[in-house]
Design brief:
Length: about 325
């Protein structure tokens, strides 16, 4: 069997930001319930661990198989590497393989910007008046920060984009790379949190990046760089003063260290925060005088949606 393989270039070409966001949105409206998503599966590997993420729907099934090797960056290699395998749900026959890292690099920002789009739409301006030109502040200088800035530039073309990072040389390199692509980003500072309309945390930091009390009422914060109950990019102060939206309630209870232990699992179950499907279906309302926090950990159904988009775009007329 000669399966087609979609490399990183082919994956990105078949899933531009607007198409990726639209595919996720339609999946949530029509076929996906995030609460039915499979949990991640972990297994030991020689120098780290395997991470497996299976998902299925009526037409397609798939699994993202990743390796996580913490020592790799010191050797000049990627910490996380992997491949995606797409199957036909009816016959269980494999259809294609594709670059797992590029798939992740697209689906995570697409999911974040989908959430931002609908959270901002849930605010008609009567509760939290917004400036015409949003100020978007992104924390991080890695692949996810880079791609969140790319996605924000495509989805919010009138926005002012700024990036905050610990290493000035990496910030400068990221800004220069985006400038070549026609995306204008300037160097920001953590002090800008107080006047940002949208704050996106896309880092590997295990501790909060800023004082959550500084976030303006009406601002939207996305914490998407970390998963695991021992890692958090935002503090309990922000969590406790915010409306909260999650990708899925079950996945958040398993892996959202940004939310737990700010509140216990029992408290979150009682609160029953809106998930992405609720958000897209218009079943989420913002509260007056509160920021809104979107907490994402990455889910397998998102990979499947984007992999399906890549496959159909690459093989069908």
């Amino acid at each position: 069997m000669n399966l087609p393989y979609f490399d990183s270039t082919a994956v990105r070409a078949a899933a531009p930001w607007t198409a990726a966001i639209a595919a996720l949105e339609q999946a949530l409206l029509n076929v996906v319930d995030p609460e039915d998503d499979s949990a991640r599966l972990f297994s030991p590997a020689p120098n780290g661990e395997f991470l497996l993420m299976p998902a299925s729907n009526r037409e397609y099934s798939g699994i993202k198989a990743l390796t996580v090797a913490p020592a790799n960056p010191a050797r000049g290699l990627e910490k996380i590497q992997g491949v995606y395998i797409l199957f036909d749900s009816d016959t269980s026959a494999p259809l294609a393989t594709m670059d797992g890292n590029e798939l992740t690099a697209i689906r995570t920002p697409a999911t974040t910007l989908l959430a931002m789009k609908h959270i901002l739409a849930a605010d008609t301006g009567a509760v939290h008046p917004r400036p015409e030109k949003a100020h978007v502040l992104v924390f991080g200088t890695g692949v996810q920060a880079l791609n969140h800035l790319r996605a924000a530039g495509a989805v919010l073309p009138e926005a002012s984009l700024a990036v905050v990072g610990r290493r000035p040389e990496r910030v400068a390199a990221l800004i220069a790379q985006l400038a070549k692509e026609g995306v204008h980003v300037r160097q920001g500072t953590s002090a800008e949190v107080a006047r940002a309309d949208v704050v996106i945390c896309a880092t590997s930091s295990p501790t909060p990046l800023f004082d959550g009390g500084l976030v303006a009422p009406g601002a939207v914060v996305a914490a998407v760089g970390q998963h695991g109950l021992n890692a958090r990019e935002v503090d309990a102060t922000l969590v406790l003063r915010s409306d909260v939206v999650v990708e899925g309630r079950a996945s958040a209870l398993r892996e959202a260290g940004d939310l737990i232990p700010a509140r216990s699992a029992e408290e979150w179950e009682a609160i029953h925060p809106a998930n992405l499907r609720d958000l897209v279906k218009g079943e989420f309302e913002r509260s007056a005088g509160k920021p809104c926090l979107f907490a994402g950990v990455g889910m397998a159904w998102e990979d499947l949606v984007i992999a399906s988009l890549v496959y159909e775009g690459g093989t069908r007329p």
